[in-house]
């Protein structure tokens, strides 16, 4: 199965980065303003996007503040169902935090997979800008 794997260094501590990944204001600051964000294992991140007829629902499978967030896609486009999303956070030796991101379990490399790969890359540039400046720059405005 093809997987997406990305890495970015953000000039902020891991707790700040984790809040951007796991809280309503955080997710709305870089990902989508259409975000209903639950907290803790078993809760959902329910995301909506402009023009999309459905929400994308990510169930939290693992939540370790400042260290790791793991999710499974439980609602959304068929190609996304049961794929897994993981964020691992580590201190960078020269300062800041390294975010290692994996989105795994896609059935094939098709046009949607390629678009999603580019989308995640763009979103992580927004994540970096948002965390480092504190200014919201959502990729999607729902």
What can you tell me about this protein's structure?
- Residues 11-132 form the Activator of Hsp90 ATPase homologue 1/2-like C-terminal domain.
- Belongs to the AHA1 family.
- By secondary structure, the protein is an alpha+beta fold.
- α1 (14-22) packs across α2.
- The chain has one domain: Alpha-D-Glucose-1,6-Bisphosphate, Chain A, domain 4.
- The chain is globular.
- It contains 3 helices and 7 strands, in the order βααββββββα.
- The model has no long low-confidence stretch (mean pLDDT 97).
- It has helices at 14-22, 24-30, 111-133, and strands at 4-10, 34-37, 44-48, 56-64, 68-75, 84-91, 97-104.
- A 7-stranded antiparallel β-sheet has the order 1-7-6-5-4-3-2.
Protein traits:
7 strands, 35% strand
CATH homologous superfamily (4th level) name: START domain
And the CATH topology? Answer: Alpha-D-Glucose-1,6-Bisphosphate, Chain A, domain 4
Q: End-to-end span in angstroms? A: 31 Å
- Tally of helical segments: 3
Query: Globular, elongated, flat, extended or rod-shaped: what is the shape?
Result: globular
**Total of domains:** 1
| H/E element order | EHHEEEEEEH
Class by helix and strand content?
Answer: alpha+beta
Beta strand %: 25-35%
Alpha carbon gyration radius: 14 Å
The unreliable regions are none
What CATH first level would be assigned?
Answer: Alpha Beta
CATH architecture type: 2-Layer Sandwich
How many E-type strands? 7
**Helix amount:** 25-40%
Strand order of the largest sheet: 1-7-6-5-4-3-2
Sheet with the most strands? 7 strands, antiparallel
Report mean pLDDT, rounded to a whole number.
97
Family: Belongs to the AHA1 family.
Protein name: SRPBCC domain-containing protein
């Amino acid at each position: 199965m093809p997987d997406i794997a990305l890495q970015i260094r953000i000039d902020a501590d891991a707790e700040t980065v984790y809040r951007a990944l796991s809280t309503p204001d955080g997710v709305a600051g870089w990902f989508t303003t259409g975000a209903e964000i639950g907290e803790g294992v078993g809760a959902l991140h329910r995301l909506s996007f402009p023009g999309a007829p459905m929400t994308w629902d990510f169930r939290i499978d693992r939540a370790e503040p400042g260290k790791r967030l793991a999710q499974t896609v439980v609602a959304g486009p068929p190609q996304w169902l049961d794929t897994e999303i993981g964020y691992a956070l580590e201190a960078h030796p020269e300062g800041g935090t390294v975010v290692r991101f994996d989105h795994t379990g896609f059935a094939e490399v098709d046009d949607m997979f390629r678009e999603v790969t580019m989308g995640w890359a763009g979103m992580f540039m927004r994540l970096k800008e948002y965390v480092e400046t504190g200014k919201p720059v959502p990729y999607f405005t729902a």
